[in-house]
Amino acid sequence: MIVLPGTSIAAAQAALPLNALENRILLCHATGLTRVQLITRAEQPLGAEEAARLDALVARRLAGEPIAYIVGRREFFGLDFEVSDAVLIPRPDTELIVELALERLPPQGRLLDMGTGSGAIAVSIAHNRPDASVTALDVSAAALAVAQRNAANNQARVRFLQSDWFGALAAGERFELIVSNPPYIAAGDAHLSQGDLRFEPSGALTDHADGLSALRTIVAGSPAHLTAGGWLLMEHGYDQAASVRALLADGGYREVQSWRDLGGIERVSGGRVAG
């Protein structure tokens, strides 16, 4: 056992083998205390059950499991999201597509989020734009269950559909904006066997092909579900912007461009259908 029962909270925090932030997160999770309470109750001893819970949590992290899966939560766009191994962990880079969508979504606009996962994109947009009509699709029933809870917990009105891409949409159903963070890592990419990606659902990470097949499907199918002049915005890999812009241009989209994330990487590309 890393920390013995009876050890003070302060001593336990100092003894844990992770970085300071992760030590604090896991100690809060094991004890049920807030960050402030860790300070105000620094000399409080850990009970046997608390010490055992903390030991198990630290062991999971040392085995490489992502902190977000261990505690079951992740903040995204200022909101609290439930996460599990049924969904990708929302990342700060993806906030870019939310910002771009909010800039382009007209009053009372209709938005479609394809491959919603935890619902991070759809719920963030719906929370910030309660006037909008937001629909979110995912092929995974387990992911949709997580997304539905996130919508409820964040007071966001979202229509969820289980769908293999456009399959569940009514013919002729149209939106002013379609957004997606689809699987875009190519099969065999070394990153799939590294870090947090080892624990995340592979079907949400890779298309098991060249990394562009899902993006091709979305580019090809979106015009039938966009209003005149409607936008398509897609997140993609760090080295895929030029390829995605080519897909959009070949598909007849106008105003094709890419936008950079906080790290300066072209992370989102998009365009408009003919008006």
From TrEMBL:
Its EC number is 2.1.1.297. Residues 16-72 form the Release factor glutamine methyltransferase N-terminal domain. It is an enzyme of class 2 (transferase). This is Release factor glutamine methyltransferase. InterPro entries: DNA_methylase_N6_adenine_CS, HemK-like, N5-glutamine_MTase, PrmC_N, RF_methyltr_PrmC, SAM-dependent_MTases_sf, Small_mtfrase_dom. One of its GO terms (biological process) is methylation. Substrate binds at N181, P182, P183, Y184. Methylates the class 1 translation termination release factors RF1/PrfA and RF2/PrfB on the glutamine residue of the universally conserved GGQ motif. The keyword Nucleus does not apply. The gene is prmC. Pfam families: MTS (PF05175), PrmC_N (PF17827). GO terms for molecular function: peptide chain release factor N(5)-glutamine methyltransferase activity. Residues 102-189 form the Methyltransferase small domain. Belongs to the protein N5-glutamine methyltransferase family. PrmC subfamily. NCBIfam families: hemK_fam, RF_mod_PrmC. The keyword Ribosomal protein does not apply. Keywords: Methyltransferase, S-adenosyl-L-methionine, Transferase. It catalyses: L-glutaminyl-[peptide chain release factor] + S-adenosyl-L-methionine = N(5)-methyl-L-glutaminyl-[peptide chain release factor] + S-adenosyl-L-homocysteine + H(+). S-adenosyl-L-methionine binds at G115, T116, G117, S118, G119, D138, W165, N181.
